[in-house]
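## Example record

The block below lists the input lines for one assembly entry, exactly as stored, with component labels intact.
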Amino acid sequence: MKPLQIVVLVKQVPDTTEVKLDPKTGNLIREGIKSIVNPDDRNAIEAAVTLKERYGAKITVISMGPPQAIDAISEAMGMGADRGILLSDRAFAGADTWATSSALGRAVQKVEGFDLVFAGRQAIDGDTAQIGPQVAEFLGVPQATYVCAVEEIKGDAIVVKRRLEDGFEKLELRLPALLTVVGEINDPRYPSVGRLIDACREKAPIEIWNSADLGFKASEVGLEGSLTHVVNTFSPKAKRQGEIIPGGAKEVAQALLSRLSDKKLLRDTL
Amino acid sequence: MTVWIETELCNGCKRCSKACPYDAIEMRGEKAFILERCTACGTCVSVCKQGAIKSDAAPREIPDFSGWKGVWVFAEQREGTLMKVSLELLGKARQLASSLGEEVSAVLLGSGVEGLADTLVRFGADKVYLMEDESLRQYRTVPYTRAISYLIEKYRPGILLMGATHLGRDLAPRLSRRAGVGLTADCTDLTIDPAEKILLQTRPAFGGNVMATIANRYSRPQMATVRPGVMEAFEPADHTGKVIRHDFSMSEDEIGVKVLEVVREKKKAVELSESRIIVAGGRGVGDRDGFTLLEELAGLLGGEVAGTRVAVEEGWIPPERQVGQTGSSVRPELYIACGISGAIQHRAGMMNSRFIVAINRDARAPIFQVADWGIVGDLHEVIPEIVRQLKTGQKGL
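Predicted structure tokens for the full assembly:
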């Protein structure tokens, strides 16, 4: 069997698990927020590397983002990917999922004879979960989202389990196909130091493609190529009492229970 | 794309600086100034009333969509049972349709599901587009996409709403790409712009520090998904409607996907969206033992325990108890947030609670901005004290 051609789509995202607001301005405090590989995407890389170990494969990682997103690709290569492509161009800025899936889809098409595309279910900075299915449609291939297990490759088909709200379903998809994975599918390995160092060398097989390399006009990508646009932004209005209850544990507990009782939120304990 | 400010047109109103999701515009003297971290997202261009912010984007013409009318709801059914979110969306669709003076329609796909049409009408559908075929019995992305895109081309709806369930989040983006339209995921609010008559879609955005209002000006239908529990279903009195049936068929070879097996796991059902009281924990809870404390408090209050994405990722609580943009949206009478910083993705899932209590050591945590009552302190000291007082009946009365 010839080695599988696998493409993995990854995104670099800010690690926003610990947001803090400036109490005076109400703005997000940005200093010290680091960039990480989107958590679900690390599972996607691991899923591809697992298949490579089992069946033999060449893995190409594609990311779209600013120049520093090359770090995400290096990390993927440290985990076992063979080739990296960064789609980076000022023209890509402000892209919605339509414009993003056009760029990623075109890039995947340029990877000769792909059999499988992996992506994370969703990115923690946007949470849309749209890119996977939109790229699958762009490519015209079957898709499975929320994939929680890859069972086997049988001839020209792959068997996967897809997580449902109340269980799972087992699907057989004809290849080529696109899969988006959830965190429970595996535990991503750490990048190996040797591979990381290789990824940082000049000979490292990381390429940077701009919109012209993908055959796009500037008006087809980024903000101009988008179909949805932000027309306003606002901080959620706090129509709340906003009372800070002062005191030690005993006092605050007592004061809080008294307020809950006044609003009839406590069960009748008698 | 590049964005810049025509300084002589700027009147120093600060609207752009407030709207910028990246904090990339500051005031220098009385004029706005764009900092290096600008990502050219274009938000400031649309909020500037002076026309002082320019971009090199070519001006775009908005096509004529006067032939695209009606508010559609995808009626999601599984094994012949309608999902509640579809009825909730019909409730919202009726409001939108009445602002537009248009009709509400539901799209119902499956096999042997005709009987569900009555329910859809009862909850506000004026028309039900029905397609029944064996290939639609079990949900599969490809035939569902083809069926709905056929109806879209034929009837040209202005708006299409879908539930953000696992099925909806699989289908909606695929369908949007097929139909060539924009899609906004997981909206927390939907309204009609009174002047432009377009759908304004609100959701958390830009890495979760702000809410964004998103418009879909350049394509129809305007597609949006909404999580279960965000909108409210209601039954208009004596509503009537009609069923319009269409044939559908697709060969297995064209579909390329087989469902080999469906397994329903019997879990203890947790209906967070039905809970009157929720005690939720985040990173600050610290470990699994911390959640035992929260469970005790929830038990005494007659509520359920929930948590943030971090709490789920750490394995402190199961995923079905996650509240927030990726979990459930809840609106209990009382929400007690313990050790939760309050990322907007979490707030989006609990903001509609009637009363909110926040317990957090960090006074800067955003959760305090949405709390009715805040306690700046260590939950590991405060909660045992609340539990003790509840047990002894000392309510400070």
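Chain A touches chain B through 99 residues (CB under 8 Å). The longest strand of chain A covers residues 143-154.
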